[in-house]
User: Fold Phosphohydrolase from Planococcus halocryophilus.
Amino acid sequence: MDQEKINQCQNKVKKIYEQFDASHDWQHIERVMKNAKMILAHENADVFIVELAVLLHDVSDPKYKKPNEDLEREILEGLDLTNKQRQEIQDVIASVSFKGGNGKPATSSEAKIVQDADRLDAIGAIGIARAFAYGGAKGRKLYDWNEKARTEMTEQEYREAQPSSVTHFYEKLLLLKDQMTTETGKQMAEERHEFMLSFLKQLQTETDGNK
Assistant:
C-alpha cells in the first residue's frame, strides 16, 4: 500500500520537475533518493516519510514556485495519508532548504536524512555541475574573483542577489560539509568537499584568480 502511494506521488512530481532547469530536475530527485537510501541503511527512520519528502521537497521551491501556487500541499492532500503523516512530511521538507544559512534545523531522524541527502547533491562533481547549470539558467557570471562572498545575509538577500556561480561556492557549497547531521552524510561529504576545493584551485590557475 505504501509503495502505491509513493508511485502515485512520483508520477505527479516527475511532470513538475521535468519543467525545471537541470539543477533541480527529475535526475536531481533520483540522486537525492539514492543518497537518502544509502544513509537510511545506517539510520533508524520512517522510510515511507523519507521517500515522500524526497519526492516532494522541491515542488514548491521559491525559485520555481508561481504566485498563489502550492503544489506541495495539493499533492499531499491528494494522497491517502493521515494528518500526522502529512505534517511529518511537511516538517521534513521545511528543514531541507539552506536559505542563506537561515534554514530550519533538522530535528527528526527523517529530516536529518533528507537534509543530508539533498545537500550531498549540492557538493562534489555533481554540485559543481548543478551550480553552473543554475547560474547559466539565471544568466550569472561563471566567476568574479573581485566579488566578496557574504558571510551573513537574510533569506531574502540570499534569494535576491545574483552572485557569480563561483561566489556561490563560498556562500553555500563549501559550508555544507560541516553542516551534515548524520554520520554517513559526514563521511560522504568529505571526498566531495575536497573535490570542490581542487576544482576551485584549478579554475583559479586557468583564469585570473592569481592563486
